[in-house]
Write a sequence for this structure.
């Protein structure tokens, strides 16, 4: 979470500026509520992948049983 | 040394403008887990308010008459935590007697009020900002009421979003976190309105 918040909020990683100067930093990422949003997005991605693997697994088992 | 703030102003500041939960982000874990159900949120909010007010008052007295005169500053955290744990222990017994239903619903989260960082946080804020006794009591009561307000707000919103079309991976914890983030952004609008220290 800290990696994404620092990258988008300041444009640096471990204090080294990586993004070009023209990039307008996302100030919301520096404020506390962004941690909730970034965490929710991580949960979205992870659970989405888990659910997709569960449905493909049950679909395969379903066709094999038939 | 004692800041010149009217206790009533401090009371309203600790409920709205520096809400312990949505501005200072203390006391989050039971906030997220218990807000599934409005009735248990109400019970937990009441318990936290009671513990916060009583322990802030007792901790102020201990600070003034025990820690400062005897120079026990290095034992401050232990003494505060002992007071908080004792009050929570007594409160658990009372709740078990008065309302066993609430006791069962709260489960592990009732003893976990002891380590709710909002309660120790309020006591340490009180000590750091050198409040007087009246200011401390109003600050503790206001912070507790602010915590209670935030948890019933979240419980009410969660009840409404139960039937809303939320994407399947986000159901449950995900949408709760986004809701808390939006509530926190709303409370940022109050920033700087009232000086608390």
């Amino acid at each position: 979470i800290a990696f994404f918040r620092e990258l988008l909020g300041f444009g640096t990683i471990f204090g080294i500026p990586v993004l070009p100067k023209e990039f307008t930093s996302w100030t919301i990422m520096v404020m506390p509520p962004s941690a909730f949003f970034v965490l929710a997005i991580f949960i979205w991605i992870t659970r989405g992948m888990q659910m997709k693997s569960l449905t493909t697994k049950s679909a395969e088992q379903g066709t094999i049983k038939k | 040394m004692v800041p010149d703030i009217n206790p009533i102003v401090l009371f309203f500041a600790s409920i709205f403008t520096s809400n312990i939960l949505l501005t200072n982000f203390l006391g989050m874990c039971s906030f997220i887990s218990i807000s599934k159900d409005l009735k248990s949120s109400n019970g937990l909010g009441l318990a936290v308010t009671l513990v916060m007010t009583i322990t802030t008052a007792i901790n102020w007295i201990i600070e003034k008459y025990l820690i400062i005169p005897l120079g026990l500053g290095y034992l401050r955290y232990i003494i505060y935590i002992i007071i908080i744990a004792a009050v929570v222990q007594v409160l658990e017994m009372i709740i078990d007697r008065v309302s066993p239903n609430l006791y069962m619903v709260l489960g592990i989260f009732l003893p976990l009020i002891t380590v709710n960082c909002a309660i120790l946080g309020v006591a340490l804020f009180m000590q750091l900002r050198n409040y007087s006794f009246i200011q401390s009591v109003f600050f503790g009561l206001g912070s507790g009421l602010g915590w209670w307000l935030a948890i019933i707000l979240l419980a009410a919103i969660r009840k409404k979003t139960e039937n809303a079309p939320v994407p399947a991976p986000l159901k449950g914890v995900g949408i709760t976190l986004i809701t808390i983030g939006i509530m926190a952004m709303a409370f940022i609008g109050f920033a700087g309105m009232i000086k608390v220290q």
Summary: The interface with chain B takes residues 31-37, 39-40, 43-48, 51 of chain A (CB under 8 Å).
